[in-house]
Amino acid sequence: MLPNFEDNVYTSQYCEENIYHLAQRMLAQPDSDSRWDINIIFVSNLSRTVALWNQRISSSRDTAVIWDYHVVLTLRGAFAVNRDDEQETWIYDLDTRLPVPCPWEEYVEQTFPGHADLPGQFQSLFRVVPCKVYLDSFASDRSHMVIFDPSHGPHYVAVPPSYPCICGPLAAAQGVSHNLMSDFVYMGGDVNGFGTVLDFLSFKDWCSGGKSVPSGV
């Protein structure tokens, strides 16, 4: 049976933190390491303007949302040998109108319709990060959500979560307080970051089980 956390921690427009908490809960399940292959997917591009459909924040299913980045979680059976639910790649997007979790083919078709026909500035790249790497190395001080208004000074563009900022144990040990944008969202080839960056077709191939990515950084 697939994990289903309907009461997951959630704050609108803080997808990276919502998924961090979801990943923590998944890894806390008995035998999760041996049963599931869990990855965190950052969706963005060099211009930080990616078009996603079926997002709850949009006015309708037919209206795209242009995100600077988005974050989802993928799950599939680590050692499944048959075409069943546990071998399928499932996507957990806490901001979608689609079912959660959603089979990857349905999710990709409904979230990125006509992707190849989009102007390049709206096409997505996908950074695949192993779950444990994300939990250990992610850090955010939420400074990317602060803007300066001459009338009111600095303020958040969206109300931040009530809990403290997240800093994984390895990030904390290295004195890192914020690497969200540089090591996870950034999709350029001149900086390694964490995980592996895939284009749209390579991401679909990976979801189908046809492409492997490194298990570490």
UniProtKB/TrEMBL annotation:
Its EC number is 3.5.1.122. GO terms for cellular component: cytosol; nucleus. It comes from the Eukaryota. It is an enzyme of class 3 (hydrolase). InterPro entries: N_Gln_amidohydro_ab_roll_sf, NTAQ1, Prot_N_Gln_amidohydro_ab_roll. Residues 10-204 form the Protein N-terminal glutamine amidohydrolase alpha beta roll domain. GO terms for molecular function: protein-N-terminal asparagine amidohydrolase activity; protein-N-terminal glutamine amidohydrolase activity. Mediates the side-chain deamidation of N-terminal glutamine residues to glutamate, an important step in N-end rule pathway of protein degradation. Conversion of the resulting N-terminal glutamine to glutamate renders the protein susceptible to arginylation, polyubiquitination and degradation as specified by the N-end rule. Does not act on substrates with internal or C-terminal glutamine and does not act on non-glutamine residues in any position. Belongs to the NTAQ1 family. Monomer. This is Protein N-terminal glutamine amidohydrolase.
